[in-house]
Amino acid sequence: MIKIAKIFLFLGGFFFLMVSCEKANTLQSKEIASNNTTEKDAAITPDVQMVLIKGGDYQPFYGEDSTLVKVDDFLLDERPVTIAEFLDFVKKNPQWKRSEVQTIYVDDTYLKDWQDDETLPKDADPNAAVVYVSWFAAKAYAKSAGKRLPTLDEWEYVAMADEETANARDKPDYSAHLINLYNEKNRQKNKVKISAPNYWGAYNMFDLVWEWTDDFNSIMTTSDSRTAEFDDKGLFCASAATTTTDVLNYASFMRYAFRSSLKANYTVGNLGFRCAKDPQNTSK
């Protein structure tokens, strides 16, 4: 029965990935390339600690079994960006207010839970993670803070950790615990930093919101990047599922399938972000 359940979960994840393919299209690459939205954004200084992540080699969820990816040292916000911090950003950068933002950069649900341009959602905790923000808006915020979005490999590298170890993926209860967190209703409304941090000192990697990464759609290429050959037919499609390195890690399937369904202007009620930075660019 356990084996059957695992196969069902695998097929479910594969089917979800295939459905995601229908929503995406190759225009996303052009959207991501047009990163010129933050030229005039005013600086912000959010009060958030950054944790140093010591780099190393890791095996990504997608790729050949023998392929390891090197992640360099980097700094990562210890928690997601909060509603209060994003409010400060839009006040200082009115071009990102709900009524002012250019529609090419957000869809029609951008900050939809806010009461107006500068009034937070009713009954919302200001220290909850901000949601209904697009990739473009997240990029603009990060740039204003003198930071950037983490890459997919950086985010997944940190996400391998539990509270005790840097890589907990081989622990039997690792994936099951994450699935339970993902299935918790209204988890995005909870305050940041209530749960325990992981091995690196990063809070809320799983228990609050999904998070944007800088290259969120990059895993949908199907060829070996070492050959410098790319198959456009594989972009955003489920064919990449055949190269997964851990076919029973359904929690990872859920993350990658969700990312594959996104476009850069999408905003979602449980999708937020946190910022990263290169160590040589900071004194922390």
- At the fold tier of CATH, the topology name is paralog of FGE (formylglycine-generating enzyme)
- Major pleated sheet: 3 strands, antiparallel
Q: What is the typical, i.e. mean, pLDDT?
A: 79
Q: How many domains is the backbone divided into?
A: 1
Q: What is the CATH-assigned architecture?
A: Alpha-Beta Complex
Q: Percentage of helical residues?
A: 25-40%
User: From the helix content, strand content and strand pairing, which structural class follows?
Assistant: alpha+beta
Compute the gyration radius: what is it? Answer: 18 Å
Descriptive report:
The chain is α+β, with helices and mostly antiparallel strands and 284 residues long. The chain has one domain: paralog of FGE (formylglycine-generating enzyme) (Alpha-Beta Complex), CATH 3.90.1580. Helix content is 27%, strand content 7%. It contains seven helices and seven strands. It has helices at 2-23, 27-33, 83-92, 135-144, 152-159, 174-182, 250-260, and strands at 50-53, 56-58, 69-71, 74-77, 210-211, 271-272, 276-277. Strands 1-4-7 form a three-stranded antiparallel beta sheet, with no helix packed on it. α1 (2-23) packs parallel to α7. Residues 1-38 and 221-244 have low confidence and may be disordered.
